[in-house]
Amino acid sequence: MKYAMKKMTLATASASMILLAGCATTHEPSNELTELQTRYNSVVSSQNLEEYAPVAFDEAGKSIARLETLENDGADDYELEHQQYLAERKLDTAIELAKHNRSQEYIDDADVRRKDLMLQARERDLTQAEREAAFMKSRAEAAEQRAEMAVARANSMEEKASQMASKLESVTTKLDKRGLVITMGDILFATDESEVKPGAVRTLEKVSDLLAEYPDREILVEGFTDSTGAADYNKNLSERRAEAVVKQLVDNGLAEDRLSAKGYGEEYPVASNDTAAGRQQNRRVELVVANKDDKAVDDRVAQR
């Protein structure tokens, strides 16, 4: 039990920072910060995972404390969202690393148990003892593999999406608190149309190829327009465009039950509608891929 016997001073210090943070501020913490603190406190005080990765949990605790400091200091939205993303990733990494180390302890324990069984086999069936030891070890090794795969999957999709976007015109990617966002600029539709242009079908095929590698990730397709024309018309057009992209993705082989569509019209502009270049940037479709398997994409929250 080599991990369990270590002193957990670093992780304990981080836990104390988060558990006591509320006593030193007059600022009402955001829902995101509260959720992070609650999750962190759960794993360090209830699940006892911190004993398997004290340094990683210490870094996660400091990152969460940094987010609280930024909130109290009135930092801007970009800095807060960036720090929240860092804190979430550090906490996810700490949890996965702890699970990995715990799995290694299981393997070590299984080896000890196997040796004990070998000795006991002098008085009973040796073959049965070997089978039991082999089963215990294989189960621990399987747990270790799952932990390693979870860490790898957390990084692979973002990297592959970035590589894909670099090869496609008017396609960009970024990672935010809702998930991986794939933005497709004003290339999919003709003016006032909601049918995918033939020239854009190949681009959606490339996107589909990437998404097919992650069949358990849910996807929200969001449509946006510029401010030209009536707001009701723009909202309806953006909804039809989002639904057209969903249909094309299904035609490309993606499961329909993991896809949903929503249109926002001229809401949530990313540039000024006072210029032609700005309006072109606002005419876009965004595919938001959930952060985790079997988890719905959170609804868009208005920019503060």
TrEMBL record:
Membrane recorded as keyword: yes
Q: Where do the OmpA-like domain residues begin and end? A: 176-293
- What keywords were assigned to this record? Cell outer membrane, Coiled coil, Membrane, Signal
The yes or no answer to whether the keyword Signal is present is yes
Q: Which SUPFAM superfamilies match?
A: OmpA-like (SSF103088)
Q: What is its subcellular localisation? A: Cell outer membrane
Coiled-coil regions in this chain? Answer: 119-160
Signal sequence segment? 1-21
Q: Which GO terms describe its cellular component?
A: cell outer membrane
Cross-referenced InterPro entries, in alphabetical order?
Bact_OuterMem_StrucFunc, DUF4398, OMP_bac, OmpA-like, OmpA-like_sf
PANTHER family, alphabetized: LIPOPROTEIN YIAD-RELATED, STATOR ELEMENT OF FLAGELLAR MOTOR COMPLEX
- Per its record, how is this protein called by name? OmpA/MotB domain protein
